[in-house]
Please model this.
Amino acid sequence: MGALPVFRWRLAPDGYATRRQLRAQGLRPGGQQVAAQLERPRRRRGPLVAYLYRIDLAKPVRPMTPARWAALAKANAARRICPTCRRDAGYVIPPTLGMCTPCAFPEPSTELRSA
Model:
């Protein structure tokens, strides 16, 4: 295996792009190997590394089919259902809580306050 070309931060030649840059152009790596890498030096830690792909070998992003839209909608709906009370929370349930806010922080009952 040959070594990858390494470029300094913001000094990569034209024709290379990161995954995010490819996606912004409506492209995807399309199975190609990493062509080069960027390194951004940091003071007390190792450098930040970004992998680059060749734009000329990139393929167009696959279009969303009705089945993919339906699967995405179902997955997003599942993120809104509280596993404790089984109700739609109206928002995406935070993974740190694992349940909706009323289930995670129940209000003390009014009977205990008056007694």
Observations:
- Residues 40 and 106 are 47 Å apart (CA to CA).
- The beta strands are 6-8, 16-17, 27-28, 36-40, 48-54, 59-60.
- The longest strand covers residues 48-54.
- The helical segments are 19-24, 66-78, 101-104, 110-114.
